[in-house]
Design a protein that fits this description.
Keywords: Disulfide bond, Glycoprotein, Membrane, Signal, Transmembrane, Transmembrane helix. With about 675 residues, this protein is mainly beta. The chain is built from 2 helices and 49 strands. Strands 2, 4, 5, 7, 8 and 9 form a 6-stranded mixed sheet that branches. It starts with 8 loop residues before the first helix and ends in a 39-residue tail after the last helix.
Length: about 675
């Protein structure tokens, strides 16, 4: 079974602390305060066109000694339009987005603090320009006497608006609404075409009709014969830091019938003291206390003020922290000097001022010293926010913060070529270091000669040099060096190493086998060769043809086009082209005459011999046929017996005694 537990001592202690804090807050909230002024401004101006964003700013200057709750109220034409309570000294902002004519009017701000209130003067805002109204009708054609719904809208407008409807430019109907649109039903009795339109008017207070002025009544305001008095001790200009400063605020004059009188002693927005008839404040004088102190007397709504300007001489000036050298690199020694240049010799000497130096709010000097401190070079990171403090007679002053950003030494640069490098054509070389504080000076060298130099000042800039090489081996001669510290030697890159493209030259086309040996039926190789950097694209052409016979890309300096089964149709003039990233070259043309095949030649010879043989044979046969057709001899000398004639043939004398003669046969 659950039983209620008794509160522990720790819980009771916490409750007591919380109650004490709440009571302290309430007491602080009721701390006295003094109004200085309340002002209202209109931004960007008091007269704007419609659609402009307008800011109504209310600023209250209040002197108080602690927590203060402020209630702001914005009025337009004496009507509350906005209210807000805040606890800070920030201005109240009331925004009018896309201001319209309805926002025209007089604006005023009132600020309430516990027991007091103060209002600003009025500022008039004038907004000009109205939106064009839009008329709508639920039907365009209707019968005589029929009711029609008609609407009129003023886009974006606000406030009290009177809408007017017109038929054929004559006012037909009006209606006042608190909206930017209105709808009504109208009846049309006259037949025919009619033109309808509408307009509107925004009702403003300034459009009201003023009356005549009333009668004048003279009134007299009697001055209160009491005045505030402020006194400062010690008096005069010889107030030095560290002196005890006593300031009092009192009332001079007849205090009778001065119930509710209060006095306030303040400096700027800070309320130093308050009382019924006197207020005192004591402090240890510091230079920042110099300025105007104010004694204010308040009776009801009457406030009178007296001021005293107090000038406090510095016991010693604000220290100034300097460094040497003004620019340092990592692991370099830094000398920091903290000094107050001026001091009051009547009170202290220069040796009485002791110093301390801080880095990122940590003390570098455990004890006070003479103001000079050396940051050793072995410190890995000397970058940071440095400051120093000067102390004398329990007064401490701090220097302005000194940001130190140690520079980074430049790293070894890299040298690279941008884009393709072609012999004989200009290209760009880039030098770049991955680390190093700007500015960095880059220098390009070719062997032992300086080519060019440039200084990189901005992070997005680069060191780029134009270069032209005449031979591919020249690339190894280039280096670049970088420097960003004149006290340290430069760092040098490696040699420039990149692919160099040599332009093609000396193109040639050769034929295998030899031109005199190209015969039908054999293979033929057209070999295209060049000098230059691969890859190379080779193209073979036959004169008379626009398109190439063959195209191929090779990493070698030559390539071939193979033709199988060469025929007479392959006779002609050939040439080749070679292309790389640098240029294109063309060979001299080569004429190929395809010879007849050997077997064809043998066949032709055989055919010719056969024809000759046939002709010879034909001649022999013919001759023989003629011989066989001659008349035979009858044994009688000189007499033929062919039966055709009877004459006696005369024979040669050498053979006349022979009885017969055989003629030799000649083939």
């Amino acid at each position: 079974m659950w039983e209620p537990q008794q509160p522990s001592v720790r819980m009771v202690t916490r409750l007591l602390l919380l109650t004490s804090a709440l009571l302290s807050t309430c007491q602080a909230a009721e701390s006295p305060a003094l109004f200085t002024s309340v002002t209202l401004t209109l931004e960007p101006s008091n007269a704007v066109s419609q659609g402009t964003n307008v800011t109504v700013r209310c600023q209250a200057l209040v002197s108080s000694s602690g927590f203060l709750n402020r209630k702001y109220t914005i009025y337009k034409d004496n009507t509350v339009v906005y209210t807000e309570s805040i606890t800070t000294a920030e201005d109240l902002i009331y925004s009018l987005r896309m201001a319209r004519v309805a926002n025209t009017g007089k604006y005023k701000c009132k600020v309430n603090i516990p027991g007091k209130e103060l209002s600003s003067s009025s500022e008039k805002l004038t907004v000009t320009g109205l939106q064009t109204p839009v008329l709508s009708v639920d039907k365009r054609v209707f019968s005589e006497g029929e009711e029609v719904t008609v609407g009129c809208k003023a886009p974006g407008e606000s406030g009290a608006i009177v809408f007017y409807f017109y038929k054929d430019s004559k006012e037909l109907y009006e209606e006042r609404v608190d909206a930017n649109h209105v709808e009504t039903r109208l009846r049309f009795n006259n037949a025919g075409d009619h033109r309808l339109h509408c307009d509107y008017r925004v009702i403003l207070l300034t459009d009201s009709v003023p009356s005549n002025a009333s009668n004048n009544v003279v009134v007299t305001v009697k001055e209160l014969f009491i005045t505030p008095v402020i006194s400062v001790r010690p008096h005069g200009s010889m107030i030095i830091e560290g002196d005890n400063l006593d300031i009092s605020c009192s009332v001079s004059g007849n205090l009778q019938n001065s119930s509710g009188l209060k006095v306030f002693l303040s400096k700027g927005p800070t309320l130093l003291s308050s009382g019924q008839s006197k207020a005192n404040h004591s402090m240890r004088a510091l230079a920042e206390h110099s300025g105007e102190f104010q004694c204010s007397l308040e009776v009801g709504n009457v406030v009178k003020r007296a001021t005293e300007n107090v000038r406090i001489t510095e016991l010693f000036s604000q220290p100034v922290l300097t460094m040497y050298p003004t620019e340092v690199f990592e692991r370099e020694k830094i000398t920091l000097t903290c000094k107050s240049t001026n001091y009051s010799s009547d009170r202290i000497s220069a040796s009485d001022v002791k110093y301390s130096i801080y880095k990122d709010n940590y003390t570098l000097t455990p004890g006070s010293f003479n103001g000079i401190y050396v940051v050793p070079g072995v410190v890995p990171n000397s970058s940071g926010i440095y400051s120093c403090k000067a102390d004398a007679r329990m007064i401490s002053k701090y220097s302005a913060k000194l940001p130190v950003q140690a520079k980074v030494l430049v790293s070894k640069p890299e040298i690279t070529a941008i884009g393709r490098v072609i012999v004989g054509k200009p290209f760009q070389v880039r030098c770049h270091s991955d680390r190093g504080s700007l500015p960095i000076e880059y220098t390009l060298w070719k062997k032992y000669s300086e080519v060019n130099s440039t200084t990189v000042q901005q992070p997005h800039h680069q060191a780029i040099f134009p270069v032209t090489v005449q031979h591919y081996s020249d690339m190894q001669d280039y280096k670049c060096e970088a420097r960003n510290n004149p006290k340290i030697d430069t760092v040098v890159s490696n040699k420039l190493n990149t692919t160099v493209i040599v332009p093609l030259s000396n193109p040639g086309l050769s034929v295998v086998p030899d031109l005199l040996e190209v015969t039908e039926g054999n293979e033929m190789y057209l070999i295209c060769g060049v000098e230059g950097s691969p890859p190379v694209t080779f193209k073979w052409y036959r004169r008379g043809n626009v398109q190439p016979l063959c195209t191929t890309t090779s990493t070698q300096s030559s390539a071939s086009h193979h033709i199988k089964g060469v025929g007479n149709e392959h006779s002609g003039t050939y040439y080749c082209e070679a292309i790389n990233y640098a240029n294109m070259v063309r060979s001299q043309p080569v004429t190929v005459d395809v010879k007849m095949a050997t077997w064809k030649k043998g066949l032709i010879v055989a055919c010719c011999l056969l024809v000759v043989a046939l002709l010879a044979l034909a001649c022999v046969l013919r001759y023989n046929s003629k011989r066989d057709a001659a008349p035979p001899f009858d044994g009688m000398e000189g007499r033929a017996t062919n039966g055709t004639r009877d004459s006696v043939a005369s024979l040669p004398a050498g053979i006349s005694n022979r009885s017969s003669y055989s003629l030799p046969a000649t083939v």
